[in-house]
Each structure stands twice: as C-alpha cells, then as structure tokens.
Amino acid sequence: MKGSFFMGPRHTPGFEIREMTMPEPGAHDVLVKNMACGVCGTDIHIYHGEKGSAEVTPPVVLGHEYSGIVEKIGDKVTTLRPGDRVAIDPNRYCGICRPCRMGRKQNCQNLYALGVNTNGGFAEYSIVPEAQCYKINDDIDFDVAAMAEPLSCVIHGIDQADIRPGQTVAVIGGGAIGLLMVQMAKLSGASVVVLSEPISLRRQIGLEVGADFSVDPFTEDIQEKMAQYTGRTGADVVIECVGRPNAAQQALQLADMGATVLLFGVPPVDAAIPLPLFDVFSKELRIIGSRINPDTHQRAVGLISSGKLEIRKLITHTFRLEQLEQALHMQMSSDSIKVIVHPHD
Ligand SMILES: [Zn+2]
Ligand SMILES: [Zn+2]
C-alpha cells in the first residue's frame, strides 16, 4: 500500500509517495481503508512550518479529516466489523493530565492526533483505535463523511456561541468552516444570518446554504448593509472564521449590546489586535475561543445523517493521492471551498 509522506516545510517537493507495509491492527484498533480525506487549514499551517495548531515530526502521513471502510479488526474490538463505513475523530486525549481531569480534554497536555502526530488519512490504509471510529450510514458518501471532523469542531464552537432563537448572527469568512457556521447558526434558531466574505463564489454558496444576505468586506460597508437589512448595525453573535487580525477587529465592530464574539479561526501565534476596552465594558461583550472537538463527533455524524446540512456544495475539488501538494495549493486558492483527496482513485 502507498502513502503520501510529508517531508517537512523546507522540502521540495513537500510530499513523497512511499510504499508502506500493510500495518496490523493492535487489539483495540482497526485497519481502515481510507476513502476520502479533507485538506484542512491545519495541513496548510503544517506545510508552511507555522507554529500553533500542530507540531509534526516528518516524514509523516498527514490527513486528519477522513472516512473509510473497516478492513480488519483487532482481537478486542467489539463495536465494529469489517465492511463498516466509518468517519474518524483524529484527536486522542491522555485522560491523566490536569485539563483532561478538569473536563477540558481540548487542552490535553498530551493530545495527539491521527494525521498530525501519527500516520493518517493521506494513505491507502491507516490504523485507527476503535474509540476513534464512528459508524456512518451506507447512504452517506465518503466525501461528506470526511466533513464530520470539521463539523464536529464547528459544533463545539456553536455550543460556545450559545445562539438563542431569534438572534442575529454575523459570520465572518465563508470558507468551509464559515459556511458550516452559517448553517449551524440557522439550525440554532438565528432569525438573521449575514455572511461577510470577499470571494464572490463563497458568498454565492453562502446564500444557497442559508445566509440571509452577504457582504463583501473589501468593497461594502458591512454596518451600513446590516442597517439596511435589520435596522441595526451589529449582531447578537459574531463568529469569526478567518484567523486574521482584521477579521477579528471586524468581529468586534459588529458586536452589539451583550454580544458574544466567537473567535474561531486559527491565527498566527503572534497575532494581536487592540481591544476596545470601553466597548467590552459598556456593551458587556463576551469574547470566547474554541479549540477542536471535545465530545462532538457523534453529534456531527448525527447531523450529517439527518440531511439537515448542505455539505456536498462545500466540496469543490477532489484530487488523487499523487496530487496531494496540488490539492494543498488548491485549498489555499480562492477558487476552492473544500478540497478532498481520494487515496484509492
Ligand atoms: Zn482540520
Ligand atoms: Zn490529557
């Protein structure tokens, strides 16, 4: 079997297809035939050697947003059989560090992830602990199932945003995460969802998946447009999905009285903005972060099965394993929303 190994940020090419020996599952593991694996912003951070969301030791098979078919099971596996279709939660927690024992596994000091710290989805097969596998229905295609991982992170963010029925929500950034946020905000009862996004393809899809109106932040005055549509210049919940200082500043500008500002995008480690302290005081703002997907993967799989979300529309490109580097570049380009790699094509 083959895998595409990440060779390190200063390597050209960045990836190398290598022959791998077919791994044997341990007692509590399964061997998964990887069918679809999404390219994530985290993969791009890793590719560029940026610090922050994940540290890797190359050569390693990346890919942490994936789905596949159980091929073989370990002796002690009881909930899965060969042939089961699964979506994979890549994040493993130690259970013994202080954050784990305080109910904050997302801050686990020994966190490790499949496709980051150990071989993951950009290979034909992978070893996955039984506990990381979530069964999916036969009618869910693998591309959509691979989106369970980003969706599980979005659900954790939505939990923190605490949207109340009837509220106005502004989503900043219309990549795959922002477009999932738009849909989850609607499902959570928002009466109005506005999407701020400079790329017209993304704005268009944003409207198709449920945004009430959209704004190009580079050419339009978002507060003016909000006033036209809602009679107010701010929102009750603002969700930032870009990870850049200008987007975070825009999020604070849009925060109305009592607003929650969810800073969801992953910024560079040294990114900073001036905080309007008086606004935080006088408007009673709540500014919160969100990290990965503690205990939300099952809910993501449930929502995908329900058909309540438009996920297909977000997948704009697919690539073969040999084209992984190209797939990463496409994920960075404004022509794409979500790029998926098919290890067996
Ligand atoms: Zn990811
Ligand atoms: Zn831990």
Bound compounds: zinc ion
Provide the β-strand percentage band.
25-35%
Give the count of structural domains: 2
How many distinct helices?
A: 11
Could you give the distance between the termini? 13 Å
Order of helices and strands: EEEHEEEEHEEEHHEHEHEHEHEHEHEHE
* Computed Rg: 20 Å
Based on CA inertia axes, which overall geometry fits?
A: globular
- Largest sheet entry: 7 strands, mixed
CATH architecture descriptor of the largest domain:
Alpha-Beta Complex
Helix content range of the residues, please? 25-40%
Short précis:
The chain has 345 residues and is α/β, with parallel strands linked by helices. It contains 11 helices and 18 strands. The chain has 2 domains: 2-147 and 311-342, Quinone Oxidoreductase, Chain A, domain 1; 154-289, Rossmann fold, CATH 3.40.50.720.
Key traits:
single chain; 345 residues; alpha/beta; Quinone Oxidoreductase, Chain A, domain 1; Rossmann fold; seven-stranded mixed sheet; six-stranded parallel sheet; 28% helix
Describe the protein's architecture and organization.
It contains eleven helices and 18 strands. It has 345 residues and is α/β, with parallel strands linked by helices. The protein folds into two domains: 2-147 and 311-342, Quinone Oxidoreductase, Chain A, domain 1, CATH 3.90.180; 154-289, NAD(P)-binding Rossmann-like Domain (Rossmann fold), CATH 3.40.50.720. Strands 3, 5, 6, 9, 10, 17 and 18 form a seven-stranded mixed β-sheet that branches. Strands 13-12-11-14-15-16 form a six-stranded parallel β-sheet, sandwiched between helices. Strands 2-1-4 form a three-stranded antiparallel β-sheet, with no helix packed on it. Helix 4 packs across helix 5 (176-187) and helix 4 crosses helix 10. The mean pLDDT is 97. It binds zinc ion (2 copies). One zinc ion is lined by residues 93-95, 97, 99-100, 108-110.
